[in-house]
Amino acid sequence: MSLFEKRYTISTWYGEELELTAKKIYEMVLEDSKSNYNWFASASELVGVCQNPSFPIQFAIPIEIAILNCFANIEYEGNCGFGRNVINSDDEKAITECYTSLYDIDLEEAMLARKHYLTEVISKASYVPMLFDPLYHPGPTFRKLREEWISSKVEKYISQKTIDFKQLIGELHSDFAEMIKTAEANGEFSEDEKRIIQERQAIFKGVFDI
Fold first, then answer.
1. Total domains present in the chain
2. Measured on CA atoms in the order 54, 56, 34, 82, is the torsion positive or negative?
3. pTM (predicted TM-score)
4. Residue 205: is its pLDDT beyond 80?
5. Domain for residue 23, yes or no?
């Protein structure tokens, strides 16, 4: 490493200021990206450094991809029912900037990262806790409708360069709710409900027959 190689000031989570080369920042991010948590610096801090005009694009792009995948994985955990982490406004802005800046990057990893994050955001808009939400219906019909709805929305929005994700989640949740209510009115969940009732009756009968 050359002593004259340009260094960038970056603040860590612990308030320490480091003077690092672009390559070193890239290497540290790639190491931290093996986990979705406990990175050495915040997303907003890393994106701020990447947006420095002198920061090499060959390092900025994989850093932004890693950030987007990280937050997509965090949203995925929430969509699986493991609880949701509160993301501060600075990091929300950084995520949006990563998503936008990767739009024009003709690289498979960049396109996959954008789709991964968008898919999890749209899944979040359609997430309903089992047993605790009137929109939820046990059975394959609900799952199929939700999967098809998510796929259609990803296809619709993936071509947009910039998205207000917070606004999108609110709008899509309302859209999803209307879709499910229409399916309810059309009796699309009736067969699933009948089968579940029959299965429960069979279970109870078996218990009392013992």
1. 1
2. positive
3. 0.90
4. no
5. yes
